[in-house]
From TrEMBL, chains A, B:
DNA-binding as UniProt keyword: yes
Provenance organism: Dyadobacter koreensis
Keyword Magnesium attributed: no
Location of the HTH lacI-type domain: 4-58
Gene Ontology MF terms in the entry: DNA-binding transcription factor activity; transcription cis-regulatory region binding
Keywords annotated in UniProt: DNA-binding, Transcription, Transcription regulation
Lineage: Bacteria, Pseudomonadati, Bacteroidota, Cytophagia, Cytophagales
PROSITE patterns found in the cross-reference section: HTH_LACI_2
Coiled-coil residue windows: none
InterPro entries: HTH_LacI, LacI/GalR-like_sensor, Lambda_DNA-bd_dom_sf, Peripla_BP_I
Name of the protein in question: Transcriptional regulator, LacI family
Amino acid sequence: METITIKDIARALNLSTSTVSRALRNSYEINNETKKLVLEYAEKMNYRPNPIALSLRDSKSKSIGVIIPEIANNFFSQLINGIESIAYNMGYHVVIFQSHESYEREVANTNYLVSRKVDGLLVSLSSLTRDLTHFEELLDKGMPIVFIDRVPKNIDTHKIVVDNFFGSYQATEHLIKTGRRRIAHLTSPFYLSITMERLAGYRQALEDNGIPFDESYVKYCHHGGMMLTENETAVQELLNLPEPPDAIFTASDRLTTSCMSVLIQKNVKIPEEMALVGFTNTSVAELFNPPLTTVVQPAIDMGHQATELLIRLIEHPKKPTIFETRSLQTSLIIRDSTVEKSVNA
Amino acid sequence: METITIKDIARALNLSTSTVSRALRNSYEINNETKKLVLEYAEKMNYRPNPIALSLRDSKSKSIGVIIPEIANNFFSQLINGIESIAYNMGYHVVIFQSHESYEREVANTNYLVSRKVDGLLVSLSSLTRDLTHFEELLDKGMPIVFIDRVPKNIDTHKIVVDNFFGSYQATEHLIKTGRRRIAHLTSPFYLSITMERLAGYRQALEDNGIPFDESYVKYCHHGGMMLTENETAVQELLNLPEPPDAIFTASDRLTTSCMSVLIQKNVKIPEEMALVGFTNTSVAELFNPPLTTVVQPAIDMGHQATELLIRLIEHPKKPTIFETRSLQTSLIIRDSTVEKSVNA
């Protein structure tokens, strides 16, 4: 689609560009007849204001900062696409930063974004962030922040999460229904909101099905999957247990692929010897050997909703009395990595 | 690792923070003895200046803008990690933007980054960019720009590329050596530098092995892989040829995974009926069914080198008389998707 500019409108209507520009921003210097002419033509031609021009006009920078742990993670890259599609349509730029699961970098990114005068922040916490002062101070100063997915419990602002408990419950129950009894859980640091919720769902599903919870089947990877050796050690420890698991439920993207790699290296047959379910938005789950059963988060929709809430905070600066925490549903997509045990036994 | 701040140094040496700060930046207001004390202590404690503080002190913003087509592409996400590791160590922030393979967005991103006063740009062109005025104007104004991977032929600045010709030649020759004769090539728009070079390597390998080049075996996807239906149609057209190919060499990340998806859907057996080599940095090639033979680009090293060149341009603003184009080598990683034909026949 061709983009129509102010110049094009001016040429078509035989007006100066400055007249068109002032008419579009409803300036008192332009008479109503001209305004009507310009606005109708602009609408007909599907004119979209240029975000740069907008930002020069307003005092706002018309930009949103995004701080996420890692872009090379399918959930986060899809989330960013959701954020960008709404932001772009509403005339905002999106500035992306990675924390690389480091608290120090998260703080540095936050400070930089504030120094560059972004209008608001969308944040998913790094797995090593326990002190939240850098965000609390900003909120106190009136900076709009919306948290996504990995959210702080004790900060009062809008949050977009998924129903991690249910997603995890459903995955674990599926493993039980397909005949697994020794179900391990490979997850991120215990203090992350998503870890606690996913662990609780896993535990509840076990207990509801008469399987006692066994702490030795739970492995925490403190770098959230970023350190391959840590992930590999965790999987190896599970394989070395006196009664090794017959299924592993992995709680994130990288944990899932690392786990699958180790199982393949060790010639552990999936799903015959070990079923596998991953909490991952990988776009290539069906290309895997075997195709992988996944718990998928509505990442694009989460990006949309978080961005809409953030822009609402930016454009209506009166502090809302109630902040929302929206919890979206995950989907369990069943593939061959969890085929019924009896079929293979 | 704990970060030591100016405050910590001041406390330890019983000086004011402003004295420490001025000593660290070698101010004439501070005597040499104090300077020595502060510098030695800072070195001992591994003090690293905070990029924010640096940017407030210098007139520079201490930030680098990166414009790439898409972060959800393994090559680009690895490239960004290479960029960030050097930039961070040299005290620069990295601001990431996606063009989504759109010329319009690439121009908008460029304008925004310039309006936010970044010190330089690292760019990989969108697949729909043919007009380069937005970059030419910036270079004329003295903005340092280094292009990576998808580079413009007629702009004179530093460029980091890979030897696409050789990478492509090697992949095609490997397919010929494993017994394939009807080798198709699925690629991006013909006018991109990487497309032309990869096509030339493919063509040369065919001709050097006595296989005539056949245009009907080459499919161009004008959205560079972003439009799944376009990729799928291209693969389907290859399968519908009177003499369908016995191998497909795909020229990018998404083209590779789309192609593999279609082949699986259509029950085309890989590698028995169709061998597959992908020009992709996917981190999960060995998890695929079958594990995928890939041509891998040294993405992290490309990021390192491009960032070093850019920071040199930023910090030594005298225009160099000669710009470099560095060409790095790709690696062919052979996996089961190209197992010898005779073994399977």
